[in-house]
Amino acid sequence: MAAKHTFDAMVIGGGAAGLMCAIEAGRRGRRVAVLEHAERLGKKILISGGGRCNFTNIHCKPENFISANRHFARSALARYTPRHFIELVERYGIAYHEKTLGQLFCDGSARQIVAMLEQECADAGVEIFLNTKTISVERGAEGFLLETAEAGFSAGALVIASGGLSIPKMGATCFGYDIAKQFGLGILECRPALVPIKLNPNDCKDYCDLTGLSAEVIATAGGRSFGEKMLITHGGLSGPAILQASSYWHAGETITIDLAPDQEAFAAMLESPSGRDLTSAKTELRKILPARFADRWLDLHASERWTNRHVNDLEGDLHRWQLMPAGTEGYAKAEVTVGGIDTDELSGKTMEVKRSPGLYFIGELVDVTGHLGGFNFQWAWSSGYAAGQAL
Ligand code: FDA
What we know:
Layout (H helix, E strand, L loop, with lengths): L4 E8 L3 H12 L4 E4 L7 H5 L6 E4 L7 E2 L7 H6 L2 H10 L4 E3 L4 E4 L4 H13 L3 E3 L4 E7 L2 E6 L3 E9 L14 H8 L4 E7 L3 E2 L2 H7 L6 E8 L2 E9 L3 E3 L1 H7 L8 E4 L8 H5 L6 H8 L5 H11 L6 H12 L1 E3 L3 E2 L7 E6 L17 E3 L7 E2 L4 H16 L1
Parallel strand pairs: 1-2, 1-10, 2-7, 10-20
Antiparallel strand pairs: 3-6, 4-21, 5-6, 8-9, 9-10, 11-19, 12-15, 12-18, 13-14, 13-16, 14-15, 16-17
Dihydroflavine-adenine dinucleotide binds next to helix 1, helix 2 and helix 13.
């Protein structure tokens, strides 16, 4: 195959990580190409944060990420911090606000973030090839050779930034994992994360007609707890607390939900031995949960007896509501993929494959998955920057 295009570095995938990497390498004088199979750049950025892109989190720490090696992300996150991305956003005059818990969103539209990255690419001399699907990747004596339907490309360095498996209908592919396999790299088991859970048929029969109701809860899965909103959906549970817990949940395990964090719902009942019944319990629980949910939960959990022990047990059940999910809504609804390219294969400083110099993996493909709240984009920026500095 005769290469028609020759660059110093090629980046496959024009999403958050790939664009940041290309910008940094371009700025450092490298001739860089971004090969994107979609018709436009940054499609996931455009739909992120409900169209307003939660582009970072000011409280970003390595502890906000899931990885088999909890130290791996540390170096990249320390060198390109939320402050760096905020400075870029401010330089472009993009208005933003903190929504909650350090999460920064555009006031206007996620389109502003994509436009900013496109402008940065143009300023850095990055060449963008849209609608360009890579058919094959080979390593030759002089670097990497890529074949696409239209042309051949060659470069000394190759960055794989093709993202995870979530939202296949938006163009997510297993391309990056296939390339990792081609080069003999280890991949840690992938599963959908930040994803709504499906209740088992019995629980769904009991609760799913309450779709749309929400409550402040603490959801716990895999030993990690998250206090935020839970939302009942037509097939199960969603909302930030559940999405966060889903990243730690494995099939066959339970999710535990505290439906009344830091509150004693039935304390008043314990104080008085008279007037204890289902109606008074509902009156108390309606102070904490939406009325229909409070009533339903009590109809299904309250005993017919109202001794101190029974009231205490009910209080305990309320703080430890155990559910055995049937599964998750899968990659179709997941925000991210947990698992991915084994970080043992990569330099934490540059994202270069240790056994294959010149080859880099960045972004969501790598076994580094952020919590909900802007952490996944921060990882994309930080890992992209780390590779861009090394190219
Ligand atoms: P990303 O998926 O962004 O980019 C990969 C690119 O590679 C895509 O442009 C894709 O088309 C391209 N590609 C794939 N295969 C290819 C191939 N074979 N050849 C060429 N190109 C190929 N995170 C966050 O921090 N804040 C938020 O608000 C949100 N919101 C959000 C909402 C929704 C609905 C989803 C699905 C996800 C989020 N996320 C998020 C997660 C965030 O979008 C995600 O972590 C980053 O986009 C990952 O960046 P990458 O660059 O690694 O992949």
